[in-house]
Amino acid sequence: MDSIYDCYTLNNGMQIPCVGFGTYKAMDTDSVEVTKCAIEAGYRYFDTASLYGTEEDLGKAIKESGIPREEFFIVSKLWTDEMGYEGAKAAYERSLKRLQLGYLDLYLIHWPRPSAEYADWKKLDVETWKALEDLYKEKKVRGIGLSNFLPHHIDNILEHCTVKPLVDQLELHPGYAQETALAYLKEHDIQPQAWSPLGRGGRSELMQNPFIMELAGKYEVSPAQICLRFLLQRGIIPLPKSGNPERMRQNQDIFSFEITREDMYRLETMPQTGWLGEHPDFKIPDKKVQ
Ligand SMILES: NC(=O)C1=CN([C@@H]2O[C@H](COP(=O)(O)OP(=O)(O)OC[C@H]3O[C@@H](n4cnc5c(N)ncnc54)[C@H](OP(=O)(O)O)[C@@H]3O)[C@@H](O)[C@H]2O)C=CC1
Ligand SMILES: O=C1CO[C@H](CO)[C@@H](O)[C@@H]1O
Question: Which domain holds residue 99?
Answer without folding.
Answer: 7-202+236-242
